[in-house]
Specification:
Distance between the termini: 106 Å
Largest sheet: 6 strands, mixed
Structural class: alpha/beta
Number of helices: 10
CATH superfamily of the largest domain: 5'-Nucleotidase, C-terminal domain
Number of domains: 2
CATH class of the largest domain: Alpha Beta
CATH architecture of the largest domain: Alpha-Beta Complex
Helix content: 25-40%
Radius of gyration: 27 Å
Length: 339
C-alpha cells in the first residue's frame, strides 16, 4: 500500500511541476503613444526599462496572440509641456509624469510609473535611476545641505513684490550654475511661504518644497533692450502681487510702482554698469519663463545657449550651490529698488 501511495504522490508532483512549466508563458509588451511621440522610440525605451525589473518580456506580435496571456501596457500622452505615462499589467495600474522633453521625458515618466507600481522593485529602481527620480530621494529629503546666516522669507508678499533674500539666493545659484551674466527667476516659483531664521539648517526637503515645479535652468542670449522689456513685464502686475515679479542676480534696477504698466523701469545696471541696449548678455532663467510663461514672451526671441535637453534641474543647482558654500548669507542689498 505504501509503495502505491509514494508512486501516486510522485506522479502528482511531476504532473504539477510540468503543468507549471506549461503555464510559464512569456509576458508581452504593448505600447501606445499620442500624436507627437515617436512610437518606435517609446517601444524601445519601455521594453528596455520594464524587462530590467519584470524578467522575460517580448514585444507583442503584430498579429496579436490568443489565449490567456500576460500583457503589460504602457500608454503615453503628451500634454503641452508634460509627458504622462500609464503602466498597467497583472493588477498594476499607475502613472508617471514628467516635464522633461524628448527621450528624457519618456524615460522619466515611465520610470515613475514603474516605481509606483512595483513596490518590491523600488530599491533596485532607485539604485539604477535614483538621480532621475525624486521619489527615490524622499528618504533623503532630511539630508542637510548647509546653513543660512541670514533670514530667508519665502512668503508670497515678500517674493512677489520686491527684492527677497531667498530670491537672491536662488538667482545667484542659477547664474553661477551656467556661468551667465544675469540670473532671473519668477517670484511665483518660490512656494513654501516660510521664514527661516538666521542659523537655520537648510535641507533637501526645504529646497524641494520651495521649488516644486521641476524646472530646469536654461541659458539664453538676450539684448539689453529685451532684458529691459522682460523687467517691464516682471513689474507690470505688482497690484495683483503676481508671480511674474522678478528675482535677479548680477544686475540691479530701479522702478516706479506708480507709473503706468509698461513704463515702470527707470534704470538698469548689469555688473555695476548701465545696461547697454544693443549688447547681448547671457541670462540664466528657468524653462517655464524661457518658454514665455508669466508673460515673459520676449524670452522666446533670445538665442538658446543651453536648452532644456541638456539643462540641470533648478532644485539640484540650488542644492549644489548651498553645499558648495556650506553657509549662505543672502540679504536684500539694493538689487531691486522702488522709487
Amino acid at each position: 500500500m505504501k509503495p502505491i501511495l509514494i508512486i501516486s504522490i510522485t506522479l502528482i508532483l511531476i504532473f504539477y511541476k510540468f503543468s507549471l512549466l506549461a503555464d510559464e508563458k512569456p509576458c508581452y509588451l504593448r505600447t501606445e503613444a499620442s500624436k507627437g511621440i515617436n512610437q518606435k522610440l517609446l517601444a524601445n525605451i519601455s521594453f528596455s526599462l520594464i524587462s530590467q525589473y519584470l524578467g522575460d518580456l517580448e514585444p507583442l506580435p503584430a498579429g496579436g496572440v490568443s489565449g490567456n496571456i500576460c500583457i503589460y501596457d504602457i500608454s503615453v500622452i503628451k500634454d503641452f509641456e508634460s509627458t504622462f505615462a500609464n503602466f498597467q499589467g497583472k493588477n498594476l495600474n499607475s502613472y508617471g509624469d514628467s516635464k522633461l522633453p524628448g527621450t528624457d521625458g519618456l524615460q522619466h515618466s515611465i520610470l515613475k510609473a514603474l516605481f509606483r507600481s512595483l513596490s518590491n522593485k523600488r530599491s533596485k529602481i532607485c539604485e539604477d535611476y535614483g538621480k532621475l527620480l525624486e521619489e527615490c530621494g524622499r528618504k533623503e529629503q532630511g539630508i542637510k545641505l548647509g546653513k543660512t546666516a541670514t533670514e530667508l522669507d519665502s512668503r508670497k508678499k515678500t517674493v512677489c513684490t520686491g527684492e527677497a533674500a531667498i530670491g537672491n539666493l536662488i538667482a545667484d545659484a542659477m547664474r553661477d550654475g551656467v556661468n551667465a551674466d544675469i540670473g532671473i527667476t519668477n517670484g511665483g516659483g518660490i512656494r513654501s511661504k516660510k521664514i527661516y531664521a538666521p542659523g537655520t539648517t537648510i535641507t533637501r526637503r526645504d529646497i524641494l518644497t520651495e521649488l516644486p515645479f521641476r524646472n530646469v535652468v536654461v541659458k539664453l542670449g538676450l539684448t539689453g533692450a529685451q532684458i529691459w522689456q522682460a523687467l517691464e513685464n516682471g513689474v507690470s502686475q505688482i497690484e495683483k502681487i503676481a508671480g511674474r515679479f522678478p528675482q535677479v542676480s548680477g544686475m540691479s534696477f530701479i522702478w516706479n510702482p506708480k507709473a503706468k504698466a509698461g513704463s515702470r523701469i527707470v534704470s538698469v545696471k548689469v555688473g555695476g554698469k548701465t545696461l547697454n541696449m544693443s549688447y547681448i548678455y547671457t541670462v540664466a532663467t528657468n524653462e517655464y519663463m524661457a518658454r514665455g510663461g508669466d508673460g515673459y514672451s520676449i524670452f522666446k526671441k533670445g538665442s538658446v545657449l543651453i536648452g532644456s535637453k541638456s539643462a540641470t534641474l533648478l532644485t539640484s543647482m540650488v542644492m549644489d550651490y548651498i553645499i558648495a558654500k556650506g553657509t549662505v548669507s543672502p540679504k536684500v542689498e539694493g538689487r531691486i529698488v522702488a522709487k
